[in-house]
Fold each of these.
Amino acid sequence: MPIKIPKELPAYKLLSEENIFVMNLHRASTQDIRPLKIGILNLMPIKIQSENQLLRYLSNTPLQVEITLLQTKSHTCKHTPIEHLEKFYSYIEDVEDQKFDGLIITGAPVEQLDFEDVTYWNELKRIMDWTKSNVFSTIHICWGAQAALYYHYNIPKYKLDHKLYGVYEHWVNYPHDDLTRGLNDRFYAPHSRHTEVKRDDIDKINELEILSESKDAGVFIAATKDRRQIFITGHLEYDRDTLKNEYLRDINKGLNINLPKNYFVDEDIEKLPLVTWRESANMVFGNWLNYCVYQNTPYNIDEIRENLSK
């Protein structure tokens, strides 16, 4: 079954051209099936790019998925056309009384700020609190993962001496876990961040497990034992050229930054970077939709209840 998105959304044309089966809302409404209701709280500045990246992996499943795009009201996005935001995005106030099978909270380029100094921190806290009772399973990505670990468990982030930037090798701690099943013993994933969370802090929380980590990148996937809150510190969703574009952006800003590690072939920015993480991204997002969400979420979505006690 396909992903269910508006035909006018830029991702519809892009994914169709990649031979990924997407379904417009009219066709989906004629099928007698309950699609998974998945929200994406998009905190990234270039929102169309993030939409395309995440929808590509959410569409690689036999399940029908209905997407709701969310943005914050307390921060005005300057890098996405206002017409796009007004047409395709909602605020938490628009959906606060609804239940969702799953939600993805993206990263954001604010990691060097204290959490409380982020302009939309209070609004994000409200949304993260809302997920406990209205969302069956939530994935938090990069800064989103750090923010959620801090909010839910008071786990701090730590500033790194140098930006963690590139594609790193990881291993799986629980090979037969629902979220990591099918991953290779050693697999790769991109990272792009200035801060980290530490294993020692997570280990102190009985409710949390570390499912995957890396010698160079540290904790990669952590989750509550019921897999209803998932924290991914890297960017499995990245495109082939995302790290390259970030590197060129920083160079053009005059920043002194090294090449992303394990990314450019022969360390040559003119050569096409190899994608070494696509299989792992398909596996993790597919496992989440199938095993963590579809196999466990109530058929009557209104029966979703509190999932994280304080």
Note: The mean pLDDT is 91.
Amino acid sequence: MTRRGDRTAGPTSVGPGAVRGLVDAGGEVALLLEIIRLTANGPAVEPLAAAVARMITEATATDVCFVHILDDTERTLILAGATSPFDDHVGQVQLPLGMGVSGWVASHRTPVVITEDKESDPRYLPLPALRGTEFISMASIPMESDRGGLVGVLNVHTVERREFSPRDLELLHVIGRLVAGALDQARQHRRLAMRERAHERFVEQVIANQEAERRRMAGDIHDGISQRLISLSYHLDAATHAVDDDAVEVAVQLAHARDLLGLALDEARVAIGGLRPPILDDLGLAGGLASLARSTPQLPVDIAVDDERLPEHVELALYRIAQEGLQNIVKHAAAALATLRFRVHHGVARLDVSDDGVGFDVTRTQQFGATATPSGYGLASMTERAELVGGRLRIRSRRGVGTTVTVTVPLGHQRERC
């Protein structure tokens, strides 16, 4: 029988009749195969931990099983999986490394077996939520993966007193290593997903801040510079009518000032529209694209767009890409017709800007960079806008056939925030 003072590595010498194995050889193979099958499916951390806990208790005739996983700080164990009735506590029980039996096992990477009288073990820390006093015997095994090191701790408990042999511990150790690899992979996947969501939020916030600043600047121009220019225009008109007939030169100079003022007003209005297209706020992307098509008098534009609202920063990016694409066609393509298409399908927004113009060599474009194309297309800013909102820009072109610029933006989390 295990001595109370020797509980770290399990019993060292046990009579053959006193050892009760966790599971027979056939059951052991079946259990390992089932765990391999389960981990190969790559579920998330909590479902995998819960499924493993259930399988271990069923196969080993133990009463409860707890799977504790290191959190992202790697300083705290969190209960990630448990058998009933403790499954309600998943995610709520936390144990710093070094505290309790599980914390000790995680710190020392060494199994612990307690056959009875847990309260006398200095490492034992009662957790009321897990009702440890109701269980007599326990085995605690570190779960380690070759790539990720320590992943967590696997515990089994029994209501009745039970011996755990070296073979029992070896089996639990093998299970721990099998599960650790899958749990570590699931944990890394979760971390990556969290980083991606954080990146999305960061990009969205950056664009939102830029747009807020542009709105402020547009308002300042409209309320300040534009209003002063308009007021000045009235004064110039009044001065023009007030001069005497013999003051011809004064009238000429005032007329020149009036012309310059008109140009300044036009430039201020263009600047306001460039900072933030008001039509996006009023009519959304569909209305904005339709307005772009109508405001390109040099070229007929065939347009077909879905009336779908997207997050503000995505709408702005697609509007600017379409705007620059149409400008490029007018400047460089020598086209007879442009085509503008926008649709949302299966959670992906797609924008196509096409022409039937002269086209260019896409291979050379990729070789020399988007801003150094032989036809003068400035594609770098369009590519940057697409990538900032998590999208991708693709160019298809052939000389004498025309060009199509396609932007696809997976909406995903972005759609939920529109």
Note: Residues 1-21, 366-377 have pLDDT under 50 and may be disordered.
Amino acid sequence: MFQRRTAFKAALAVGAGVAVAGCSGDDGGGSGGQPPAAEAPKAVITAEPAVNAKDAPVANPVTVKVADGTLTDVKVTNPEGEAVKGELNPEKTVWTASEQLGYGKTYTYAAKGTGSDGKPVELTGTFDTVKPAKVIRATVNPGDDAEVGVGMPVSVKFDAPVTDRKAAQAALKVETSKDVEGAWGWLSDRQVDWRPREYWPANTEVTVTAKLYGVNIGKGVYVKADVTTKFKIGRNQVVKVNTPDHVMKVYRNGEQYASYPCSNGKDADPNLNTPNGTLIVMTKEPTSIFDNARYGYTDVKKKWCCRISNHGEYIHENEENRANIGKNNTSHGCVNLLEADAKKYFDSALIGDPVEITGSKAKMPTTSDVMDWLLDWETWKSKSAL
């Protein structure tokens, strides 16, 4: 009796199982009567920077891409609602921005596309660009279209200290129309110069690109904009002054071009010497005012002045010292010429022309922001951050 009842219950259980199976198979859906889920579109739109990105770099162009489909409309707008300029590639699979992003801004994506399966797909959302702790300005010299002498360095200056010199220097590039060996050297935490190993070849064309926008140059400091310049090296002209000779010689392409009697800094006082070293013409001033209260003169006007250092030395006219020009060194460090000679030299000179001084007791101090040629090549290269 006990065994029969057990067998009967087992039979009921099996029967119930059959009944359930038969019921689930009636509608053929395999999901308890629920309709099948719709297939997702094959196409996928992605963007760089990604949606919801924070501290996105501003130097890289925004890109919107679609996989397994085509883009039908792409809009990237800035916080003012203005569209960022950009264009699609011919295949309509990639949209690339053609303008730079701004620092510390939120941009909005609205992109649509169609998959290879004909289904629509879209991308929406926002991203935020990096917010600098400080934005500073950079400049480059020489400026566009300048023609300069064979000793002219390229100089990039920043209006605040650069703490990551490697990052800043890595963004700098010098291209030349002739093969020129050169290197960058940091003269201070606000200035980096590029000079050739030897004087520039005459008539070299130079392009400098400083892609500094978007570069963190240390402690969250960024540069306001890229800076570039294109300039030309002129003819080869070098001035040579051996101070005891009282003669200033001018050479063109290695041959003597002109010779002018001169009076240089006082030989007996190293503080008044015209110091030894290779300098360059830094400025050309038709008239200049000279002051040195220590030595008893102020507001002295001289003509045809070419500054050759920030230490105070010039090549200039000094008719008041005519009796000593070509005979004695009596100046306070400048190279004095007769007025007619000073005018001839002034007219012949280019900014960046080398001026080589020898024969003095004193050396030019390396404190000027234009002291590139006072260093030998190995010392100069050691000032590079890379």
Note: The chain has a mean pLDDT of 91.
